[in-house]
Design goal:
Pathway: Amino-acid degradation; 4-aminobutanoate degradation. Keywords: Aminotransferase, Pyridoxal phosphate, Transferase. InterPro entries: 4NH2But_aminotransferase_bac, Aminotrans_3, Aminotrans_3_PPA_site, Class-III_PLP-dep_AT, PyrdxlP-dep_Trfase, PyrdxlP-dep_Trfase_major, PyrdxlP-dep_Trfase_small. This protein has about 450 residues and is an alpha/beta fold. It is built from 13 helices and 15 strands. The strands form 3 sheets. Strands 4-10-9-8-7-5-6 form a 7-stranded mixed sheet, with helices on both faces. It has a 4-stranded mixed sheet with strand order 1-2-3-13. The longest helix is centred in the last third of the chain and has 22 residues. The two termini are about 30 Å apart. The N terminus is likely disordered. Bound molecules: pyridoxal-5'-phosphate (PLP). The site of pyridoxal-5'-phosphate has 14 residues, from helix 5.
Length: about 450
């Protein structure tokens, strides 16, 4: 895993030459604070100069190891050769016409790729948008138009975006919803199979949680009123929760039996992130609709809804769209990103990252006295997390997650936190990261634990 994908001039190394953040970043941070709305946060205020492969170089000359990928976006790196080449060529040809005014081939090609790569061999169609939230909103519009029903079912710990409808779909109040209501109606939340925290244990979790969820849907909403059930096959912001085995198939079957559109939100888990093109493949799920964004276009804004042709065609002509949806430069980037995923076999790379990470994290848990604060190690592919708890309990330990993240940042390793309780440290390296950098990042995590 030594291919350079950040351009040959970007060394794949960690290099710390100032405090983190350094003086130039601090200066820019002051300008930023004066002019950027306070509601827009940053995990780590180091200002980026260049990025690619497994590193982010800042304006002070520091080079950080990237375990964040801009929140699971730059799976092919932040300057992948094929993405830069194709997007640059498209930029020179034309930047925009609006697909709804005069169309172009790149949009069609992306939809062809989506039809080929997503699960199931039924006839499929797609519509392209700019952001994940927009894709989820459109999946709801399409499901409602198809079923002529209104209710939408989502799950505990689910995350689907920050627009009004997707705030309603999202479970966690702070920071996503606090003060921003009222929220869209006809949204209902049911339990998810969170094995680590299921009262009767992980073995029973899939069957019990699906039975509870289905019981709530039938008793509280009425299956015949439900347009869509939307679930992340691996829950992202909620804490990298893999629903216990059996849960997703049971929910998908229930949807099928009741004429409900089953929507897999693969915005974070899709495009090789979990070691498969889509995480729902793990249990052989074939969703009716699938939403994608993040990893799809190597960092350019693009999102899609893909699904059964008869469902996708339910809205009337002109009912779907948007000025920028499926921008030609973003489509070119997506084609470059997909090309890179195929050529470098990034599913295999993601599986290797899982093997290395889970192995090292399990060693840390066993070896360190304070390994007891690692309650759970979970996730798939390059979507791995540790849930931190008070030793000997399952009480969430958000302070430890915050302290570990801070310690990693100071040493030049970018990591992110997540989880309903804020106590999950998550690792989302670019799939093209070199194994030496991956291990160096894990060394930093190990040292941070030792100092905690
Ligand atoms: C990030 C995310 C979204 C929202 O995507 P945006 O591009 O930020 O609007 C929706 N669903 C999931 C699962 C996500 O991870």
């Amino acid at each position: 895993m030594t291919e350079l994908t950040g351009g040959p001039s970007l060394p794949q190394e960690r290099r710390i030459v100032t405090a983190i953040p350094g003086p130039k970043s601090l200066e820019l941070q002051a300008r930023r604070t004066a002019t950027v709305a306070a509601g827009v946060g940053s995990t780590l205020p180091v200002f980026t100069a260049r990025a690619g492969g497994g590193v982010i170089e800042d304006i002070d000359g520091n080079s950080l190891i990237d375990f964040g990928s801009g929140i699971a976006v730059t799976s092919v790196g932040s300057s992948a050769e094929a993405v830069v080449r194709r997007a640059s060529a498209q930029l020179a040809d034309f930047t925009h016409t609006c697909f709804m005014v005069t169309p172009y081939e790149g949009y069609v090609e992306v939809c062809e790729q989506l039809a080929e790569l997503t699960p199931g061999d039924h006839a499929k169609k797609s519509a392209l948008f700019n952001s994940g939230a927009e894709a989820v909103e459109n999946a709801v519009k399409i499901a409602r138009a198809y079923t002529k029903r209104q209710a939408v079912v989502v799950f505990d710990h689910g995350y689907h975006g920050r627009t009004n409808l997707t705030m309603a779909l999202t479970a966690k109040n702070m920071p996503y919803k606090q003060g921003f209501g009222p929220f869209a109606p006809e949204v209902y939340r049911v339990p998810v199979a969170y094995g680590y925290r299921w009262p009767t244990g992980p073995e029973n979790c899939g069957a019990e949680a699906s039975a509870q969820a289905i019981d709530q849907i039938t008793k509280q909403i009425g299956a015949e009123n439900v347009a869509a059930i939307i679930i992340e096959p691996v829950l992202g912001e909620g804490g990298f929760i893999e629903p216990a085995k059996g849960f997703l198939p049971a929910i998908a079957q229930f949807a099928k039996d009741n004429g409900i559109v089953f929507v897999a939100d693969e915005i974070q888990s899709g495009f090789c992130r979990t070691g498969q093109w889509f995480a729902c493949e793990d249990e052989g799920i074939v969703p009716d609709l699938i939403t994608t964004a993040k990893g799809i276009a190597g960092g350019l804004p693009l999102a899609a809804v893909t699904g059964r042709a008869e469902i996708m065609d339910a809205p009337h002509a002109g009912g779907l769209g948007g000025t920028y949806g499926g921008n030609p430069v973003a489509c070119a980037a997506a084609l470059g990103s997909i090309e890179t995923m195929r050529e470098m076999d990034l599913n295999a790379k993601a599986k290797r990252i899982e093997e290395v990470m889970k192995g090292r994290l399990a060693e840390m848990q066993a070896k360190l006295d304070n390994g007891a604060i690692i309650g759970d190690i979970r996730g798939r592919g390059a979507m791995i997390a540790i849930e931190l708890v008070e030793p000997g309990t399952k009480t969430p330990n958000a302070a430890a997650a915050g302290a570990l993240a801070k310690a990693c940042h100071a040493e030049g390793l970018l990591v992110l936190t997540c989880g309903t309780y804020g106590n999950v440290l998550r690792f989302l390296p670019p799939l093209v990261i070199g194994e030496d950098l991956l291990n160096e990042g894990l060394d930093i995590i190990e040292a941070a634990f030792a100092r905690l």
